[in-house]
């Protein structure tokens, strides 16, 4: 005789939220362990490794076994690493390795997980800023430029020649013929150096307000022996009519600026007639309700609160924040003097819009 089916009582809204909060805590812990796994090379070591004991995993990565054992516990509990309980062997599935390794076929989610620790390191300063409203300076964020350079490699550098620059018709051919280019907020310079290597007839200038970022860029340029690129510590608002550029790029940089309106006007004024401004910026709407449907909405607002908005306020800026939104970006570009503004999306980059603004 069949047993009667037990009907599970419907969870109350309070119980549902409690479960969501439990999952939040588990995912927060998993994010921190994922960041560590990336930094110490555990995912790379396990990718393609046959099922191995804890000691085998530690030896493959060249790490202390006791720490690796605890890390593996988090990975197994989080469903990232498979465990053969009877044999005591651990395995990173290929499908997971594709998202978690430096050589994976998909964007490296483990590298992005580093933002959790980078931003959390400034939490006490941000808590203070909630009360005084003055923001938190770049100097409070340990490893910011290092992690930003990794992210730039994923969303910009790796797709620059195949997907991003071709968004502006004819731009690739013009770069091959020789243009004068400036990258605003160049950071560690990876995007600019990629362009400089691909287009030796063009001349490139990278500017950033951070001396630390410019030092990293100059070191990398020296290491590569790049002769058609230079870097300068500079406030982008200081660009102007005295300059003569054919192309200005800004990758995820405008919303952090202390004077974004002035920077956009300066970019416009520094371009020759027919010059192009190619801007990548976060794909927000500027509306909380609409951004609920953004796949990364919570994450992006958190980054904005913890860093983007705050560093702008710390420099006396308006604190636009990462989620300033496409409508405001389009208005500000037109107010800066650009008569033609097009907005594009790319399948390689779900986090950003690409704006192509042409000087008339």
UniProtKB/TrEMBL annotation:
Its EC number is 2.1.1.-. Keywords: Methyltransferase, Transferase. GO terms for molecular function: methyltransferase activity. Residues 28-102 form the S-adenosylmethionine-dependent methyltransferase Rv2258c-like winged HTH domain. It comes from the Bacteria. CDD domains: AdoMet_MTases. Residues 177-283 form the Methyltransferase domain. It is an enzyme of class 2 (transferase). One of its GO terms (biological process) is methylation. This is Putative methyltransferase YcgJ. The gene is ycgJ_1.
């Amino acid at each position: 005789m069949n047993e009667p089916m037990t009907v599970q009582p419907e969870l109350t809204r309070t119980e549902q939220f409690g479960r969501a909060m439990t999952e939040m805590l588990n995912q927060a812990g998993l994010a921190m362990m994922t960041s560590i796994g990336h930094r110490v090379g555990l995912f790379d070591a396990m990718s393609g490794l046959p099922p191995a004991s804890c000691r085998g995993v530690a030896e493959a990565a060249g790490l202390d076994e006791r720490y690796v054992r605890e890390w593996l516990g988090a990975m197994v509990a989080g469903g990232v690493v498979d465990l053969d309980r009877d044999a005591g062997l651990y395995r990173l599935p290929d499908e997971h390795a594709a998202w978690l390794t430096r050589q994976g076929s998909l964007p490296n989610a483990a590298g992005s997980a580093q933002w959790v620790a980078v931003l959390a390191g400034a939490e006490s300063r941000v808590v203070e800023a909630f009360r005084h409203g003055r923001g938190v300076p770049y100097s409070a964020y340990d490893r910011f430029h290092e992690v930003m350079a990794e992210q730039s490699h994923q969303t910009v550098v790796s797709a620059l020649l195949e997907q991003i620059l071709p968004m502006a018709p004819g731009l690739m051919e013009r770069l091959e013929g020789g243009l004068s280019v400036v990258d605003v907020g160049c950071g560690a310079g990876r995007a600019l150096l990629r362009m400089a290597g691909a287009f030796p007839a063009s001349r490139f200038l990278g500017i950033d307000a951070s001396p630390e970022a410019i030092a990293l860029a100059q070191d990398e340029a020296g290491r590569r022996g790049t002769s058609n690129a230079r870097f300068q510590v500079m406030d982008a608002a200081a660009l102007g009519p005295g300059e003569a550029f054919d192309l200005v790029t800004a990758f995820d940089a405008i919303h952090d600026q202390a004077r974004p309106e002035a920077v956009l006007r300066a970019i416009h004024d520094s371009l020759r007639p027919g010059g192009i401004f190619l801007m990548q910026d976060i794909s927000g709407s500027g509306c909380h309700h609409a951004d609920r449907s953004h796949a990364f909405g919570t994450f992006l607002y958190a980054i904005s609160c913890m860093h983007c908005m705050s560093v702008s306020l710390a420099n006396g800026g308006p604190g636009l924040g990462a989620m300033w939104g496409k409508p405001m970006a389009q208005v500000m570009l037109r107010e800066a003097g650009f008569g033609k503004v097009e907005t594009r999306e790319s399948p390689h980059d779900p986090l950003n819009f690409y704006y192509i603004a042409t000087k008339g």
